[in-house]
Amino acid sequence: MPPAFLPVALEHATRLLNHGPTVLVTSAHDGRRNVMAAAWSMPVEFTPPRIAVVIDKHTFTRRLVTAAGGFGICVPGAALADLVYAVGSESGAEGDKFARHGIVAAEGPVLGLPMIEHGCAAWLECRLIREPHVEQAYDTCFGEVVAAAADPRVFTGGKWQFRQDNGGLLALHHLGAGRFVTTGPEVVAKGAA
Question: From 29, 77, 101, 142, which residue has the greatest number of CB atoms within 10 Å?
């Protein structure tokens, strides 16, 4: 049984995305929920921690995110590559992808959004930053991170621990057409802590 996720200090929350992983975006509103894959997400501010993620404005996920005023970002490990590809290739408008794929989700501690821990390295619960001119013109959504947690086997003390012995939790990076690479071995700069 993997260890329980541990809270990540908000001052370190943006580190969960700064290596450019493919993410799972979760959303829920009015009894409906969804999960989709996104290749484009990144930190944009440190304090308070803010992130950006691209969610096509014509999708079911975007409708849920806008209605709920928030979204979840889960960082899947390499062991979930097939699931990431599947949920990124189908719409949730026709049915609950969590049920369809047997995905178990915990409730986020602040906004109550679905957070996926099994097979994931980390998650961030985000409050949507409302910018009507951006929301209407662009697919990019901005969120303020209100809670974050990570699997201590891969993220502890505000730092990633990418090692081959935790290979199933190494972050995925999307190359297109269902192809991914994982985060490689860590290289530590001389003089770094």
Answer: 77
